[in-house]
Each structure stands twice: as structure tokens, then as C-alpha cells.
Write a structure and sequence with these properties.
single chain; about 500 residues; alpha+beta; OB fold (Dihydrolipoamide Acetyltransferase, E2P); BirA Bifunctional Protein, domain 2; 2 domains; eight-stranded mixed beta sheet; five-stranded mixed barrel; 15 helices; about 25% strand; RNA-binding
RNA sequence: GGGCUUGUAGCUUAGUUCGGUAGAGCGACGGACUCUUAAUCCGUAGGUCAAGGGUUCAAAUCCCUUCAGGCCCGCCA
């Protein structure tokens, strides 16, 4: 057993111990251990224990995190998923052979099962007085330092398992992530929504403006795209007669990676028949404020340098009013030439492009307003030009019934009264397709089957998508999406095995 | 894509300004210690200073290239 592979972190001394154990006939990785008590259980059950050993025994297991050797006694800290507890191991109790075995062969990072009695040390810590222990898993890699832990950000992301072993804060973040997802499920399921799974491999991608990943199916002999959104399939379900549907969807977008974007990210998309964009705003507010309260027991939570207040009702204003009150530009007061001049003097990137007031509205909104929306704020009534799947506004010419939710300058939700007019939809996608063929890599393809579906008739429907990763960021006070994705996309290390080596 | 910035022992790091034998703590290994908890005490080993090239009598340090991160901006959700 030699540590010659440069890709392995195996510790030679530990490999040597492993070999000695094997030669001594020790079962190295036994298949089971009857754990009767978790550490949390033990601490709760013996909360008022005194200095005398308990009558009852405990049987628990976990990883060794620190060892304090005192010669004929040893103190060690044992940790499982929810807690840590101190072990007290005495030569007198274990006998020479077993005690020496512990000192020679049990290392920090190993997983052991123990049986013992509970007592409180003279400095007051609940401790297990160990009667016996069993090696359950020998660790052949050494753990990071006990005090500073693992700080190296890159290593924390690439080898998340180490991060989770030693950094409680990281473990807490992902516990919260898991809770958020299950709370969303419960919230929707309990209100009669059905959860479905729609294709991730799609012959035609759609539902958002983004560049896709492309892949190839050998037997079909055709290209497939990984979905950028589940939207068009979920609406087919509404056509089919499912009136309240949602999907917790992983989406894939072939774009840059930064603190707010990962190539694969999670969304929940929700559709409900006989509802409109205003109902979807209410639903969004309901879900998110519920999450905040369930997780933090309050509607006010800190994020970065701010306190966010999620207590409903949230601020809500049209895009025109947002630009007027926050950007200080009333677009209806100016001609297109004047708007262009304003954009130019404010040095807004892309000031040359817009051709009508609505396009300037979007430009000003993105440049002047978005960042200012710190508290949860709905912005509604988006121009038709950049909303190809939203229903045209019931009263405002050139606008759609669409909203987005902004929190701390981040777009967290996007929803609308779904476009269900098949002819309108056809025309809008034709326009997108022209843009795409004109070189706009993020414009949408025409999905004729989807338009046909609308042709059979989709009831008036409201829909919304919520970015899960960003929600988790907000609820855990993390400023990078990589802190809330267990295994964020990272560039491959040069010395690792490369995919080209695989058959 | 642009700007700034980081990479030194298993981990956390000093040393880089101003070139002169690579230093510490934790961890590991050996020893002492029967209520410690970042245990303590004594001793030992452990480094291609991210990789490659250049300047120089001499490079972790200066210069160039490359690799992998981080932060900010642009694009997107």
C-alpha cells in the first residue's frame, strides 16, 4: 500500500496503520454498528446528569475530531450530524490491550462506535465514559487543522466534503437550503399544486433568453439541448388540464460564472390556471415571506450591510413609476431623441440602441433602478419587446402583464399572465427567431409544438419562476452563489484525469 | 471579455516593500502525564515556495508566460 498516485491525498502513515490492522485480523470496514443513541439524544436525555456515572448505557457513533491524550486517560471529541460530545477513555476501564489499540491506531478523522455511561466532568461538560469502542471506518486522509479549519475557498468548493466535516457554518447553510426546498414543496403541495418533472434534454430550447448547452444523442443521431427553463413544457401541462403545477427545476445556461451565476441553477416554476400576474405576485410574496418566517422566526433578517424586511405587503410599482421616482426620469415627458440624449449624458452602456420609449424604459430601469431596490420590491408592466412569453397588457399598449421581484438588487422572481393567444405567440417567437438568426445568441427558437399546444387552448394562466439559489443566499446571508451550491461549477484542475481519457 | 488580487509543509500562515542558507503554530511521529477541552511539557521529521522561462554572483522575493482561485465591472436569472 504505497501512496504513489499524485491525485490521492492518502497519508502514508495511515496506510501503514491500515496494513498492520489488516495483518492483525481486524475487520477494517465493518458493515454495521447498532447506534442506539445520537449525540443530540444523549445530551438531551442526560441534561441534568451529575458527576456520578449514569446507570443506563449509551451506544453511539461518529467521527473523532480531537484527541487529548493524558497518558493513562484520553479525552476525545466525537461528532455526528447534529452535535459533538466528549469521550473519556481510561486504561483502567478498557484494559491494556484495547487502550493501547486506541492510542496506536485511532486517529483524528476516524469513525468509531462506542458504548459507555454518561457523566459530567468536574468542569461541567457532559461526557461519555467509554466502556468499549469499535473502529468503524479508518480514515486514510488527514483532516485540516482543528482550530482554523479549512479556509481555502477553492478547496472548500472543490472538496465540499471536507468543508462539511470541519465547518459547522457551511453545514448549517446547506441544512437551510434543504429546508427551503422542502418548505416550498410543502407550501405548494398543501395548496393543491402538483409537482411534475419535464424534459431536461430538449430538441428545442425555450422559455428564457439564454445560450444553451448542446449535447448529442447517439441513437437518434441528433443534437439535443439541455433546458434553459421548464416553462414551455409546464404550460403544455396546463393545456392538458392540470390547473396547478410546479417543478423544482435545474436549469442549464451556457454563460459566465460569477458570484450570482452558476451554469446549472435551481428554480421553482409555478403555473396556475385562471390566475393572472397579480395573483402570482401574491403567491410569490406568500411563499417567500413564509420561508423567511419559518427559518428565522422573524420577517427582518440581515443581509450584507442591510436589514431586509419581508413582512407583507411588499413595495410594488410599475416600471415607469420606478424609473420616474427612483431614476428621476419620466419617460413620457421626452421624445426618443431627448431620451437618447439623457442616456448618453448619463453614460449608460448601450444608449445608442433603443428605438422607442419602452426600450429606453428598460435601459434606464436596469442602469439606474435595479441596484437601488434593496427591500423586497415588485416591479410590473414590462415592455412587450423583451417579454415574448407574457400576455399583452389589458390596458397599456406596448406593455405586458409581467413582473419581477428584486431584493438587494438581485432579480429573485419573474412572472406574468401567460401568453395564451397562439397567433400572438407565433408572431412573437417569429420575431425572436429573426433576432437569433441575426446573431443574438440568447434569443429564442420557435417551438411549433408549443404553439400548437396553445392552439388547442390554454386557459388564462398565471406563472412565476423563483430562483432558489438566490433565495438561499438571501436567507443565509451569503454573498456568493458558490456558498449555497454544494458542488459549484469549477474549472478542472490540470493534473486530474481529463474527460478525453475516457472511452 | 476588462480591472484588481491570491497561490509558501496535511491545515492556518510569516517572509515579497528593499534579492543573500524557507520560519512558526496546529497536525503527524517518539517520550512524560488518570477530569482535559485550541490540554500541557520535552524531542524529531516534514518544503521543486502553483508550473515553466528570464534577469542576476545569488530569486519565494524582480520580469515574462501559463495554470487554478477570489473580488469588482460587463452579460445573464
Amino acid at each position: 500500500m504505497d501512496n504513489e498516485n499524485a491525485n490521492l491525498n492518502f497519508d502514508q502513515l495511515r496506510l501503514d496503520k491500515l496494513q498492520q490492522l489488516e495483518e492483525a485480523g481486524v475487520i477494517l470496514y465493518p458493515p454495521e454498528f447498532e447506534r442506539k443513541d445520537t449525540i443530540q439524544d444523549i445530551k438531551a436525555r442526560f441534561e441534568s446528569i451529575g458527576h456520578e456515572k449514569s446507570e443506563g448505557m449509551v451506544f453511539t457513533a461518529g467521527r473523532i475530531f480531537t484527541v487529548r491524550n493524558h497518558g493513562k486517560t484520553v479525552f476525545a471529541d466525537l461528532g455526528d450530524e447534529d452535535g459533538r460530545i466528549q469521550l473519556y477513555i481510561r486504561k483502567n476501564d478498557l484494559g491494556d490491550e484495547k487502550f493501547d489499540f486506541f492510542n496506536r491506531f485511532i486517529d483524528r478523522g476516524d469513525i468509531i462506535g462506542i458504548s459507555g455511561h454518561v457523566f459530567r466532568t468536574k468542569v461541567g461538560e457532559i461526557t461519555i465514559w467509554v466502556d468499549d469502542f469499535t473502529l468503524l471506518t479508518k480514515s486514510v486522509c488527514s483532516l485540516p487543522e482543528k482550530f482554523h479549519g479549512l479556509r481555502d475557498v477553492e478547496k472548500r468548493y472543490r472538496q465540499r466534503y471536507i468543508d462539511l466535516i470541519v465547518n459547522e457554518e457551511s453545514r448549517q447553510t446547506f441544512r437551510t437550503r434543504s429546508r427551503i426546498i422542502s418548505l416550498i414543496r410543502q407550501y405548494l403541495s398543501s395548496r393543491g399544486f402538483l409537482e411534475f418533472e419535464t424534459p431536461i434534454l430538449q430538441p428545442i430550447y425555450g422559455g428564457a433568453n439564454a445560450r444553451p448547452f448542446t449535447t448529442y444523442h447517439n441513437y437518434l443521431e441528433q443534437n439535443l439541448f439541455m433546458r434553459i427553463a421548464p416553462e414551455l413544457y409546464l404550460k403544455r401541462l396546463v393545456v392538458g388540464g392540470f390547473e396547478k403545477v410546479f417543478e423544482l427545476a435545474r436549469n442549464f445556461r451556457n454563460e459566465d460564472i460569477d458570484t450570482h451565476h452558476n451554469p446549472e441553477f435551481s428554480m421553482v416554476e409555478i403555473y396556475e390556471a385562471y390566475r393572472d400576474f397579480r395573483d402570482m405576485m401574491a403567491l410569490t410574496e406568500g411563499i417567500i415571506s413564509h420561508l423567511v418566517f419559518e427559518i428565522h422566526d422573524t420577517y427582518q433578517i440581515p443581509f450584507e450591510d442591510s436589514m431586509l424586511d419581508f413582512k407583507p405587503p411588499w413595495k410594488s410599482l410599475s416600471m415607469e413609476d420606478a424609473v420616474k421616482t427612483i431614476g428621476n426620469i419620466d419617460i413620457w415627458q421626452y421624445s426618443v431623441d431627448e431620451l437618447r440624449e439623457i442616456a448618453r449624458t448619463k453614460r449608460i452602456d448601450g444608449w445608442e440602441k433603443p428605438e422607442n420609449p419602452r426600450e429606453f424604459l428598460v435601459l434606464f430601469f436596469e442602469a439606474l433602478v435595479e441596484d437601488q431596490l434593496v427591500q423586497p420590491t415588485f416591479v410590473y408592466d414590462f415592455p412587450v419587446e423583451n417579454s415574448p412569453l407574457a400576455k399583452k397588457h389589458r390596458t397599456k399598449e406596448g406593455f405586458t402583464e409581467r413582473f419581477e421581484l428584486f431584493i438587494y438588487g438581485m432579480e429573485v422572481a419573474n412572472g406574468f399572465s401567460e401568453l395564451n393567444d397562439p397567433l400572438d405567440q407565433l408572431n412573437r417567437l417569429l420575431r425572436q427567431d429573426e433576432k437569433r438568426k441575426g446573431g443574438d445568441a440568447e434569443a429564442q427558437m420557435i417551438d411549433f409544438d408549443f404553439i400548437n399546444a396553445l392552439g388547442y387552448g390554454m386557459p388564462p394562466t398565471g406563472g412565476v419562476g423563483l430562483g432558489i439559489d438566490r433565495l438561499v443566499m438571501l436567507l443565509t446571508n451569503k454573498n456568493s452563489i458558490k456558498e449555497v451550491i454544494l458542488f459549484p461549477s469549477m474549472k478542472q484542475m490540470p493534473d486530474g484525469p481529463s474527460p478525453e481519457d475516457e472511452e
